[in-house]
Amino acid sequence: MHDDPARIEPLASAPDRQPVIEHPRAWYVSIDTTSQGESRSVAHISNIEYVRWLDRAAELHLDHLGWTRQAMLASGRMWFVARHEIDYRAEVHADEHLVLATWVRDLKRAKSWRDTVIWRPSTQNGEEPTIVCTASTLWVQVDLESRRPCRVDPEMAVALDPLQPPRSPSTGVEPCM
Q1: C-alpha separations of 42 from 8, 22, 134 in Å
Q2: Which of 32, 107, 130, 137 could form a Cys-Cys staple with 120, CB 3.0–4.6 A?
C-alpha cells in the first residue's frame, strides 16, 4: 500500500497518443493513483486530489524552468491561486495511470491563466485517450512582504512561453522588489 495519494512525475517527452493539446510545447507529467486518494464516501478519486495534481504539475513546470518554490521564496514572491475552473469528465479510480498536460495560456502583468488536460491513455491499439478532467487556473504572482500582486519579471514571462504573448508592462502593478 502506498502512503501518498498519487505518484506524480515529469515525463521526458509528449506521449505518442494524446488528445488535442492547444500549446505546442505543453509540460507533461504522469500520475499513478492510489487508494489513498479515494473519496471517503464513494470508491473513486476525490476531487481534492485533482486540485493537488493541478498545483503539483504547475510547481514541477516552474521547477523545470528554474523557478523552484525555494527560489521564489528567496526572491520574496510566490504564485497564488485566485481561481480554479475544473470540469470533471470521467471517474478515476485507484491504481490507474493518467497523463497530464499543462501550459500557460496567457500572462498579463501579475496574472496568468494556466490550462490543464488530464487523460487516461488508450489501452488498446487505435483506441483514443479518455479525457478525465480539463481545468483552467488563474494564478497571481504576489510580493510576499506587501501581499500585493507584482509584475512578472520579463525573463520568467518568456520562459513560461504563454500561448498568447504577454502584453507590454503597464502601470498599476508594482514590480517585485
Answers
A1: 23, 33, 21
A2: 130
